[in-house]
Amino acid sequence: MTDMQDMTGGRELVMVSNRLPVDRVVADDGSTAWRTSPGGLVTAVEPIVEQLGCVWVGWAGNADERIDPFEIGSMRLAPVELSGEDVELYYEGFSNGTLWPLYHDVIAQPQYHREWWDRYQQVNRRFAERVAQEAADDAIVWVHDYQLQLVPAMLRELRPDLTIAFFLHIPFPPSRLFAQLPWRKRIVEGLLGADVIGFQQVTDAVAFRTTAERFTRVPALGNTIVVPATADRSSRTVLAQEFPISIDVEAFAAVAERPEVLRRAQEIREELGNPRTLMLGVDRLDYTKGIRHRLKAYSELLADGEIDASDIVFVQVATPSRERVEAYRQLRDEVEVTVGRINGEHGAIGRAPLVYLHRAYTRDEMVALYLAADVLLVTPLRDGMNLVAKEYAACRADERGVLVLSEFAGAADELRDALLVNPHDIEGLKAAIVRAAHMPGEEQRRRMRSLRRAVYDNDVAHWAAGYLGAVQAVAESRRVGPSGEWTEPIQVGAAFVPRSIDDRVRRLAARPSLIVATDFDGTLAPIVSRPQDARILPRAAQALDVLSASPGTGVALLTGRSLAGLAETGLRSDGWIVSGSHGSELVGLDRGADGAGGGPAEGELSEDEAQRLGRLTRRFERMLGGEAGVRLERKPFGIAVHAREVPDRQQADELLAAAVVLGTAEGMHVREGKEVREFSVRASDKGSVLRRIRDALPPGPVLFLGDDVTDEDVFATLGPDDLGIKVGAGETAASERVPDAETAAAVLALLAELRTGIVIGSE
Ligand code: ADP
Ligand code: G6P
What we know:
Blueprint: E1 13-19, E2 22-26, E3 32-36, H1 40-52, E4 54-59, E5 70-72, E6 75-79, H2 84-103, H3 114-134, E7 140-144, H4 151-158, E8 163-167, H5 175-178, H6 184-191, E9 196-199, H7 202-216, E10 220-221, E11 224-227, E12 236-242, H8 249-257, H9 259-271, E13 277-284, H10 291-304, E14 312-319, H11 326-346, E15 354-357, H12 363-372, E16 375-378, H13 387-395, E17 402-406, E18 419-421, H14 426-437, H15 441-457, H16 460-476, H17 499-509, E19 514-518, H18 538-549, E20 553-558, H19 563-567, E21 577-580, E22 585-587, H20 607-624, E23 631-635, E24 638-642, H21 649-665, E25 669-673, E26 676-680, H22 686-696, E27 702-706, H23 712-715, E28 723-727, E29 736-738, H24 741-756
Parallel strand pairs: 1-4, 1-7, 4-6, 7-8, 8-9, 9-12, 13-14, 13-16, 14-15, 16-17, 17-18, 19-20, 19-27, 20-21, 27-28, 28-29
Antiparallel strand pairs: 2-3, 5-6, 10-11, 11-12, 21-22, 23-24, 24-26, 25-26
Residues 39-40, 43, 282, 284, 317, 319, 360-361, 366, 385-388, 391 line the site of adenosine-5'-diphosphate (ADP).
């Protein structure tokens, strides 16, 4: 895994989750030991904090146990005590009897009890108070999951100096379901105490922003929610965005290479009688995981004779979970009866078609199981992500094995080459199982290669860099106020410029000639749902006008929009150089040597280009024109397909993938943006247009601000004298980062003021 030391900017990191990463287990003989806690939260987060070091506040897994803080490696664990009643009302009750089913599409009926809610508040307060005691000045506190949603606001009250991040590991429900919760407003207010709220999927982030707008009446601008000022607090912004979680891919791959683990995989197959097909399921025993549906499909296939009990074995590992909660107790009973029935009906002496293992295993044993399995069935009815699916792909360096994956698992967004199934459709599930069991080696290889690419592309280090990068940007923008008090992290309309950027802007301001270049959407103008509604922030507009009128300063706007699309926003850009359609259009460069002012950069479309573009446009209109939420944007040299408004993310991905196939067939250059694919008859990018602008203007450093993937082409061209600033979260080649468009405007205002003496206010 890549080095993560600088991800917190030298600040202390405090993790807060209901469970510590280890549970204290007491054996029958009274001896005690520590064991890794169950679930995906710990699998994902532990490798990060092992590197970074942290204080971790959480419960040790047993009621009424008082345990002193202790250390494991670079982590200092600070146990919070829960009484038997806390466990019953807060953990089993409100967390797992109310929130868990409500947040998982009400697969089980959520129960609403006031005494559960009261205890949830009390325990959340206890966690907040404990963190307030433990955290050093200026620390970053990272609160995890649905059990602790009130902690961010409680903690902000107690310790305004902290930067507070929250990550929800499970789905966030659609607003119409969340509306059932009698305490819905309080939960949203609790979460809005954080500076950054991370979600697994874009649909979760969208649902939360909609819910926050609906129940607390706070406006959302793109990914940012604006919490208005109160009598004693200024307004502030909260970033609510998706950051899909992952695993330490290299660590799993390394275990999978070890000779003893490979031997153990072989041994497992032998112990099971060397079946032709070994199918595996690995889940906490939870009703969201679709175990009942899976067993039903399997038992019907055996009964119909579609698969032969003599050459297939299905191993279902079901980790014990929340065993005192009624829905879990029922599930366990039902699963165990079904297992007995299937083996009774289809087994023979010394041979069981279904092996059910109700216990936890070591990492090595889990990996050996993954290596032994020809097919992995991951078929949850709803799952925030599902790391088991990613672990399987990470382990299969042999490019063998088939993943059958529910389309309702967050992982299905990334693992597109799994056999995707709707687990409610038992016939579909049966067909996928049969297909997986008979998949030819070549197809297995092709699919597994793609799955592995996806997990390697977004491993846990990548996830942590994106998430902690956004958190750190907030932390950097905090400042001590005039009388030594901590100010709110970002003030809307008067955003603070992070200290490291402040220094570099001061140096740029003193240079005789300077180019100030910037992207438009998401950088100068907050993202909105309808592109024509985007508006440049007044402060940014004023700063750029002041800069462009000042001697030795060139102002350039580099946008992916067409110039016509930019004009729709009412932008006034007199005196600026403006490049549209990612560099295919360029106006205003009349001061320069190449005289390319006014009109398209490279002349008109040739006949062939016009024909190809016309053909593709007609195809898109036929194929995508009627799809809800799809918008086609015509540009002088191409066409863009926008899918941001498509209600279903999977469908959006499929439509965009289909568009890419058609566009590539027409020989178009394809560019990927956030929920958009752009097709252009000419290769051009913002990086090359900035080079043209630099060549035409007097030599000098460049300040460039951008937020999207297409802006990375510019960041990649910048030298040590230049300053690249990424706006918002995500991987970047830029050397600095600010959290949002308001702070980007503050950077421009600071530069304008230093260069001209004209003060640009926040309005
Ligand atoms: P959830 O967080 O809902 O439990 P995930 O699939 O995201 O689901 O994560 C489950 C994690 O628990 C994975 O890292 C998996 O390897 C681990 N795990 C599941 N079952 C067992 C088991 N029986 N023994 C040990 N680890 C397990
Ligand atoms: C899921 C949740 C975690 C939880 C884990 C195990 O992964 O997202 O927050 O810790 O399940 O559940 P448990 O109730 O045993 O902590």
